[in-house]
Amino acid sequence: MQFGTFVHDHGERIRRALVAYYGVEVGGEAADEALAVAWERWASLAGMDNPAGYVYRIGQSKARPHVRWFARRRLFPDSEPVMSVADPAALLDLVRALERLSADQRSAVMLVKSYGYSHREVAALLDVSESVVNNLVHRGVTRLRTLLEVHS
Q1: 10-residue mean pLDDT series, the chain (152 residues)
Q2: Which of 4, 14, 59, 77 sits in a 20 to 30 Å window from 68, CA-based?
Q3: pTM of full prediction above 0.85
Q4: How many angstroms separate the Cα of 22 from the Cα of each of 6, 49, 98?
């Protein structure tokens, strides 16, 4: 596989996962840095079973120095919503509730529920089992329902 094909097939998933885990600023920078490292090491990465998972882990390593700084900042900076919502307060409540999930739960919930990834795709990207993804999504959605006081 060529590096351009890899980026086309997996680059956006890696970016979304890192942004979901670390927030817009840190996650985006970590994704850029991880892809740059992947480009430099592509000869050895191309033959791996799960190069996307490896590049995701590189992104986590690149984000690590920013974690202490990141913990003091809001996960999702105040900005105009990217979608039209009948009740903007509900969107703000959702963002605040997402910030209260663990980073692993937030990543899994956002990738599965917002971006429509399958549990298998998320498991491969995060390099965990599908059952771990299933537990993270279930617990994350349950916690969101509690935080947002949604009863179904």
Answers
A1: 92 90 86 95 92 92 71 49 57 82 90 87 87 94 88 66
A2: 14
A3: no
A4: 23, 25, 12
